Amino acid sequence: MKKIALCPGTYDPMTEGHRDIICRCSKIFDRVIVLVSNNPKKMPLYSLKKRIYFIDKSLKEIKNVEIMSYDGLLIDIAKEKKANVIIKGLRAITDFEYEFQMAQMNKKLAPNIETFFMVSNPRYAYLSSSAVKEVASLNGCIKDLVPKEIEKYIINSFKNNSFD
Amino acid sequence: MKKIALCPGTYDPMTEGHRDIICRCSKIFDRVIVLVSNNPKKMPLYSLKKRIYFIDKSLKEIKNVEIMSYDGLLIDIAKEKKANVIIKGLRAITDFEYEFQMAQMNKKLAPNIETFFMVSNPRYAYLSSSAVKEVASLNGCIKDLVPKEIEKYIINSFKNNSFD
Amino acid sequence: MKKIALCPGTYDPMTEGHRDIICRCSKIFDRVIVLVSNNPKKMPLYSLKKRIYFIDKSLKEIKNVEIMSYDGLLIDIAKEKKANVIIKGLRAITDFEYEFQMAQMNKKLAPNIETFFMVSNPRYAYLSSSAVKEVASLNGCIKDLVPKEIEKYIINSFKNNSFD
Amino acid sequence: MKKIALCPGTYDPMTEGHRDIICRCSKIFDRVIVLVSNNPKKMPLYSLKKRIYFIDKSLKEIKNVEIMSYDGLLIDIAKEKKANVIIKGLRAITDFEYEFQMAQMNKKLAPNIETFFMVSNPRYAYLSSSAVKEVASLNGCIKDLVPKEIEKYIINSFKNNSFD
Amino acid sequence: MKKIALCPGTYDPMTEGHRDIICRCSKIFDRVIVLVSNNPKKMPLYSLKKRIYFIDKSLKEIKNVEIMSYDGLLIDIAKEKKANVIIKGLRAITDFEYEFQMAQMNKKLAPNIETFFMVSNPRYAYLSSSAVKEVASLNGCIKDLVPKEIEKYIINSFKNNSFD
Amino acid sequence: MKKIALCPGTYDPMTEGHRDIICRCSKIFDRVIVLVSNNPKKMPLYSLKKRIYFIDKSLKEIKNVEIMSYDGLLIDIAKEKKANVIIKGLRAITDFEYEFQMAQMNKKLAPNIETFFMVSNPRYAYLSSSAVKEVASLNGCIKDLVPKEIEKYIINSFKNNSFD
Lengths: 164, 164, 164, 164, 164, 164
Prior knowledge:
Six copies of one chain form a homohexamer.
Chain A: E1 4-9, H1 16-26, E2 31-37, H2 48-59, E3 65-70, H3 74-80, E4 85-90, H4 93-109, E5 114-119, H5 129-137, H6 148-159
Parallel strand pairs in A: 1-2, 1-4, 2-3, 4-5
């Protein structure tokens, strides 16, 4: 039976760290669904449309990946999509604690869905969407921080102060 | 293509926490290989033969699981067995730090093999092989700490001081 | 001399984890005072009145527990109530760091009052008030997450969008 | 009913950090029992007799403290002594993880006995029995690291290489 | 060649912990520049002018220290000032994780500038600018928490609700 | 006045991570002393002579670095050499906790000597002397794990089982 993995996140915006995790995942599972959170409480800088556009441009060479937005409970989407696994990339201990509790909560709510944690490539260990936004907003260089396919879009979005 | 996962460990002895991880794993991957370390530096209490026997008794109802010992580099076995994934169960932060470094080292040595971390069931969060041995050696109750199929063997091994 | 323990918190809302800690506490100390923070900076979802109501319904069978709100410095209330001990439940490392610093600060401000940390029951390790609100707001099942006496009130509060 | 607290440890040797925790404890509980582990696996430097002697000299002004050795399962002693609480001093996160798991294990084995964690006085946060031994063995100054009542005994024990 | 160290922060307000780090630093490096962040996203309570005033009063006896505000990328100022080192004081693990990632990001953006971490004096381990504000806002005693030169200014600022 | 930094360690054997820290250090301080611990309690695999030889070969292009062994208290050597700073490289949180306590202890014993922590290059975050020995002993590839100048010596030492 085909195995389906979810890669949930806000992706505000996609980083090289995200791409690394998704690519590695796509070699293990039959289908990978990148789930972009539409939860307004996260107060993303980029519009949902733009965030999906960035993911799409960054992953276009990977065949078994789909992109989708969601705004309900993660495990409800997981059940609907018949996913077997939720994938979370970990960079650090503090990530881990929060994700650890979420994984246990999700396990209680949906015992048949597993959460697997993957370790970021050390090269991207310092990388986060907020760091990218911080650096870009202060005109720092974001080369190697985001997929090269979207680098100039991100620079321009800060130049033009337009994130939709 | 079939996906193969390795569950490496010393299993000295098998606990309910180990069984939980292996069972959950066996539902996601086509084949699961429980790899029992034969590294004498770990100075296990139980003989390799006994440790394998305990695993075997505890998992006999799971079809797609095999048990195997190893004494070389984990990623060499992984390549030989054409495994895609190494599975590690995490109970705590300090586990995580060590396993995190091992995962990055293994990624460097074998870029095509992934390490996935799974979170222990909270019920087993306090459980470790050393805790089982500590409790059993002081005549404490080990019910629910080890698979019931091996509980009385472990109690007897301490009574008779025989671990071979 | 009677020993008095404080259990301070926002309780927004009470969870099964809170109840577990308070009950265990009530067996050790002569009086337990559940202190509900009225600090508006915490921006609770539920009104103070409602939060106290939930605690009251959840604990009504415990004789030596009182409920009280406060809005000043915790150690000032502690002195006023002649409390000997502040009790904090810990679920995780990140909790611990913050609470560790608060305990040291409180020790400096009031050397005679001790902070004791208790470990959550593993069954509730993933539980927090925010997790309860997250799940309830997305229509997830909150059975076993909050005391059964208040479960339906919480479900209704989200249905009616009324938290006063 | 009288409340009894246990302060278990190896006390190899007693430090100012240990004394601080025990003294603070003695103000909250009716009786405090300092439990000195006689587990040979810990391979203490000082003999059990000497370790007890050091504790005794350091605590002689505290009325409600007793000293006792033990070599079985901690919770068995706790039940025998009708203790309500096990006290553990925490200096750091790595302490915490291990003690956290022990507390959960003990809770499972003896549901009526609580573990309370206390935070070391920041002045002693860097202090441990091993640090004391390390410093003393290299002729460093141990003033303020151990109770002044035992300072010269410890210095002499290293001079004479006699720990019995 | 002269070595220059930067001590960046929000200093909202200066604490005894900050002063301790800066003083110790001034003995190792030829010049120390205290860099006060003017980033409005941090939403400081005190105006930039007031924060600089507090630092100035607290450090006036140290010859080789200068104070300066900045609002761009830290490493851009570092390059402009020909600084060799960024100094960060650490109190706790969670500090460390964030600062660890920032240090790696800064290393990538400016390979010639090092980040050095210093451990707070244990006496100040519980101290932070937010703790000072919390205590002062609730009329608690802030003696020993902030440099004595600014203690009464801070108390007054809360009395008069004036932070400019 | 010249500033002197110590880089203490067991260096059993030197890794690329060690070299990275020492090189970066040598650009900030006037003199760097690599201090090789001769403490037999650490039970190093390689003889002191061999460990010094490896460091020497790996650092020969750096002018202001000296190598020295020591077997007393670190801060005694530090005083004797008139060192201003002890440098420690950090890879992970568990490192940090231990080093944090050592730094505070050393600060108490020698208030004029500072400990500075540096963050490993992410590329070496998974690297430790034990990992190198583990991999080499199992015939794994150690390229990029140790300085290339000593790579073949280490491989041979395991082939010939000769570490003196």
